[in-house]
Known about the structure:
Elements: E1 2-20, E2 26-46, E3 51-53, H1 66-75, E4 83-89, H2 100-115, H3 122-130, H4 136-141, E5 145-148, E6 153-156, E7 163-167, H5 175-179, H6 206-212, H7 214-223, E8 230-231, E9 238-242, H8 245-253, E10 261-267
Parallel strand pairs: 3-4
Antiparallel strand pairs: 1-2, 2-4, 2-5, 2-10, 5-6, 7-9, 7-10, 8-9
Amino acid sequence: xxxxxxxxxxxxxxxxxxxxxxxxxxxxxxxxxxxxxxxxxxxxxxxxxxxxxxxxxxxxxxxxxxxxxxxxxxxxxxxxxxxxxxxxxxxxxxxxxxxxxxxxxxxxxxxxxxxxxxxxxxxxxxxxxxxxxxxxxxxxxxxxxxxxxxxxxxxxxxxxxxxxxxxxxxxxxxxxxxxxxxxxxxxxxxxxxxxxxxxxxxxxxxxxxxxxxxxxxxxxxxxxxxxxxxxxxxxxxxxxxxxxxxxxxxxxxxxxxxxxxxxxxxxxxxxxxxxxx
Length: 277
């Protein structure tokens, strides 16, 4: 029996680089907001203990696929013989800063926590998620979050109801290269309390990316005609916030044929939030 589950995208409403650890990891502050644009993860349970991916994911070997790694990681807590076949319907672009791969992995963790009847609590699931990548825990956390550390220290945050116009420049931005850029500033003063204003801060990575990727700069400039436009994550996607769906869709209707984008609503909770306690 096959089950289908959403893996929603995220936006970084702001992203500050506040320092760097001795091991090279960057210390961040950000607000993560889930949106209702999503990949779909199809899971078919097996009783032979195998975890397999159905179909190809360009450029990603099966053993490197975060969804496969997530299922195998959770197997250590599952009844003997628990297995799964995984198939992805990808909507979210790779290298876009929307967290697609991390969200896919988190959806596998959340769904299998229920399907395999493991029922691990959320804090344990977040620790497992961190083994897969710094962006995975926020999807298990499952709500608007003020993030610190490398992104794993999460607290609930408030964000107003909003619709977002998200544009997808036709480039993939390598996260590691942007964080390694010598011109990246790493000393933004830390915020003392979780912010409650959606317009707070900036994306410290944005100035590095726009110099290296003219398409990102072009999309930011176009969207900036209608409101404050900002890059999410390490790019390439950019977004602007609107108070109503009609306002957002009016902007999208004016999008040039040379650009691609969509409208999405902010989510207060992950669709699979109730899959762990």
